[in-house]
C-alpha cells in the first residue's frame, strides 16, 4: 500500500507541476492577453470536463487503469507542448493536459479516500498536489531565465511524469472490495442532492482562492515577482495546513463552517494586505481535508464521489474568478472583494444543514 501511495503522490506532484510550468512563460506560447487567457483556461476546462467521468471509470474498471491512462495523456501532451508553438495547438494540448489531470485527480482521490487511514493519507496527497503547484511555478520560471529556454520547465516535469507513469506500470493497487460495474444515474443524482451543501462549499471556498489570485495582479501595484511570491505562499500554507490538520481528528462539518467564517475575514484582509493569501491558503487546506473526511463515508462509490468533489472544485475555480472579474470591472475592486466575502458567509450559514451536530 505504501508503494502505491508513493506512486499516487509522485503522480499528482508531476501532473500539478506540469500544469503550472507554462504559467511563468505564457507570453512565449501566446501573443496578447486574450490568447494567454485562453491557453491558461483550456487546462481548467479539460479538468472540469474529465473529473466526473474519471471517478465513474475508477468505480467501474478500477483506479489503476485510470491513473495509467491519465499519466500517459499527461506525458504525451507535455512532450508535444515542449516542441510546439502557436496558440491554437497549445490550447488543444493544454485541453488534453487538463483532461489527463482531471482523470488522475479523481482516481487518485478515490484511492486515498477509500483507505482505512484516509484522513492522514489525504493530507499527504493534498500536500503533494500543492507542492507540485508551487514547484512547477517557481522552477519553470527559474529555468526559463537561467537557460533562456521557455519550454525547459515543461520538459523537466514531463520527464518526471514519465517516471510516475513507469512506476504506475510496476506497482498496482492492492486488491480490495469488488467494484460496482455500473453507475445508476439515480444514485449519482442522489449523491448530488444528499451532499448539495458540501458541493456548494467546495465551489465557493476553493473558488475563493482563485478569485484572490486573479484579482490581485490588477488590484495591486506590486511587481510580478512579489505577486508570484504571495501566490506561492498561499499554496505553501495550504501544504502546512493539510499535513497538520489531517493528524488531528476534529468534527469535519464544524471545521468547514468555522473555516468559512474565517475566510470572510481572510478575503477582507487580502483587500488591505497580501497577508490575506497566507490566511486563505491555510483555511483552504483545512476545508479540503474536512470535505474529504465527510465524503469518506460513501465507501462504495469513492470514484463517483471524488469525481463530483473535483468537478465542484474546478467549477468554483472557473466561475468565481470570472464573476469577480466582471464585478471589479463594472463596480470596482472593493465590491468584488465584498461579494466574495459574502459568498463565504453563505457557506457558513448553510453547511450545518448537513448534520445536526455542527460546532
Description:
The chain is 81% helix and 0% strand. It is mostly helical and 359 residues long. The longest helix has 30 residues, at 118-147. It has 2 domains: 1-172, Growth Hormone, Chain: A (Up-down Bundle); 183-359, Growth Hormone, Chain: A, CATH 1.20.1250. It has helices at residues 2-21, 33-61, 63-82, 87-113, 118-147, 152-170, 185-194, 196-219, 224-245, 252-272, 275-295, 302-330, 333-350.
Describe how the helices and strands are arranged.
Elements (H helix, E strand, L loop, with lengths): L1 H20 L11 H29 L1 H20 L4 H27 L4 H30 L4 H19 L14 H10 L1 H24 L4 H22 L6 H21 L2 H21 L6 H29 L2 H18 L9
Helix pairs in contact: 1-3, 1-4, 1-5, 1-6, 2-3, 2-4, 2-12, 3-4, 3-6, 4-5, 4-12, 5-6, 5-9, 5-11, 8-9, 8-10, 8-11, 8-12, 8-13, 9-11, 10-11, 10-13, 12-13
Described by the principal axes of the CA atoms, the overall outline is globular
Query: What is the CATH architecture descriptor of the largest domain?
Result: Up-down Bundle
Low-confidence stretches: none
The number of helical runs is 13
Structural class by sheet pairing and helices: mainly alpha
Per DSSP E runs of 2 or more residues, the count of β-strands stands at 0
Helix content: over 70%
Q: What do the pLDDT scores average to?
A: 84
Number of domains: 2
**What fraction of residues sit in β-strands?**
under 5%
Rg calculated over all Cα atoms: 19 Å
CATH superfamily of the largest domain: MFS general substrate transporter like domains
CATH class of the largest domain: Mainly Alpha
Helix-strand topology string: HHHHHHHHHHHHH
| CATH topological fold name of the largest domain | Growth Hormone, Chain: A
Report the biggest beta sheet as strand number plus sense, adding barrel if it closes.
none
Head-to-tail CA distance between termini:
35 Å
Amino acid at each position: 500500500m505504501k508503494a502505491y501511495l508513493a506512486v499516487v503522490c509522485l503522480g499528482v506532484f508531476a501532473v500539478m507541476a506540469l500544469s503550472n510550468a507554462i504559467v511563468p512563460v505564457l507570453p512565449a506560447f501566446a501573443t496578447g492577453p486574450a490568447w494567454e487567457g485562453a491557453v491558461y483556461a483550456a487546462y481548467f476546462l479539460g479538468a472540469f470536463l474529465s473529473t466526473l467521468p474519471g471517478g465513474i471509470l475508477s468505480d467501474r474498471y478500477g483506479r489503476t487503469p485510470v491513473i495509467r491512462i491519465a499519466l500517459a495523456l499527461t506525458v504525451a501532451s507535455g512532450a508535444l507542448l515542449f516542441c510546439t508553438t502557436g496558440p491554437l495547438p497549445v490550447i488543444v494540448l493544454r485541453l488534453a493536459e487538463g483532461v489527463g489531470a482531471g482523470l488522475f485527480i479523481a482516481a487518485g482521490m478515490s484511492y486515498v479516500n477509500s483507505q482505512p487511514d484516509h484522513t492522514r493519507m489525504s493530507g499527504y496527497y493534498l500536500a503533494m498536489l500543492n507542492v507540485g503547484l508551487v514547484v512547477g511555478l517557481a522552477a519553470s520560471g527559474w529555468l526559463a531565465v537561467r537557460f533562456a529556454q521557455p519550454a525547459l520547465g515543461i520538459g523537466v516535469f514531463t520527464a518526471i511524469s514519465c517516471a510516475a507513469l513507469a512506476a504506475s506500470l510496476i506497482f498496482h493497487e492492492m486488491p480490495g472490495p469488488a467494484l460496482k460495474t455500473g453507475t445508476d444515474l439515480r444514485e449519482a443524482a442522489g449523491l448530488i442532492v444528499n451532499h448539495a451543501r458540501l458541493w456548494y462549499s467546495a465551489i465557493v471556498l476553493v473558488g475563493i482562492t482563485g478569485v484572490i489570485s486573479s484579482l490581485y495582479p490588477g488590484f495591486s501595484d506590486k511587481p510580478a515577482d512579489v505577486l508570484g511570491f504571495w501566490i506561492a505562499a498561499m499554496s505553501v500554507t495550504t501544504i502546512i495546513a493539510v499535513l497538520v490538520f489531517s493528524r488531528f481528528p476534529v468534527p469535519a462539518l464544524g471545521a468547514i463552517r468555522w473555516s468559512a467564517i474565517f475566510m470572510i475575514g481572510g478575503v477582507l484582509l487580502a483587500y488591505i494586505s497580501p497577508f490575506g493569501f497566507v490566511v486563505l491558503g491555510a483555511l483552504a487546506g483545512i476545508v479540503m481535508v474536512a470535505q474529504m473526511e465527510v465524503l469518506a463515508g460513501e465507501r462504495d462509490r469513492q470514484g463517483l464521489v471524488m469525481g463530483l468533489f473535483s468537478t465542484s472544485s474546478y467549477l468554483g475555480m472557473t466561475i468565481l474568478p470570472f464573476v469577480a472579474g466582471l464585478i471589479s470591472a463594472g463596480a470596482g475592486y472593493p465590491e468584488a472583494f465584498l461579494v466574495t466575502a459574502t459568498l463565504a458567509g453563505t457557506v457558513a450559514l448553510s453547511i450545518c444543514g448537513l448534520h445536526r451536530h455542527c460546532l
